């Protein structure tokens, strides 16, 4: 007997809750029911507003696009908000655009309760998104290594440079010490070698 698999609606919300919102989860869900705003994530840092507009305007007229920015550098950090004029157009974008590729990345779009000033900035400690703080893989589209891993690599490289500089200093110091040893303090072997060199010069 065949088994019936029920697939979720393509325009159903993910149930994501903004932890910094003053609204309760229930109130957020109520606002999502009529929202005209999409949160778009997993974008490349290099994707432009023009590219986003070109793609998302295929499902309806766009009111505005708010690019997500690194809080420290004020540069794109991989997300944005797309505001439509109607809930129907926003849901159409979820249905037909979310899960497709933009700049060779599979983007995700979800209904958002509504943009509030300040939400355009990353919430990670380094200024970007939290997900990029702990990412262990190298992602060229999102700035390379995750922030913590990149910091560890920088610290390791700095430690290696200091080790090499210390080794060079010690070698130079040792050579300088050898040059500065007074004649009377040289070893017997060094004195014999010195005398042999003098004798060879006199014979020549």
Automatic annotation (TrEMBL):
Residues 152-177 have a biased composition (Basic and acidic residues). The gene is Mo01756. InterPro entries: NCBP2, NCBP2_RRM, Nucleotide-bd_a/b_plait_sf, RBD_domain_sf, RRM_dom. PANTHER family: 20 KD NUCLEAR CAP BINDING PROTEIN (PTHR18847), NUCLEAR CAP-BINDING PROTEIN SUBUNIT 2 (PTHR18847:SF0). This is Nuclear cap-binding protein subunit 2. It is found in: Nucleus. One of its GO terms (cellular component) is nuclear cap binding complex. Residues 142-204 are annotated as: Disordered. Keywords: mRNA processing, mRNA splicing, mRNA transport, Nucleus, RNA-binding, Transport. Belongs to the RRM NCBP2 family. GO terms for biological process: mRNA cis splicing, via spliceosome; mRNA transport; RNA catabolic process. It comes from Mixia osmundae (strain CBS 9802 / IAM 14324 / JCM 22182 / KY 12970). Its main location: nucleus. SUPFAM superfamilies: RNA-binding domain, RBD. Residues 36-114 form the RRM domain. It comes from the Eukaryota. GO terms for molecular function: RNA cap binding.
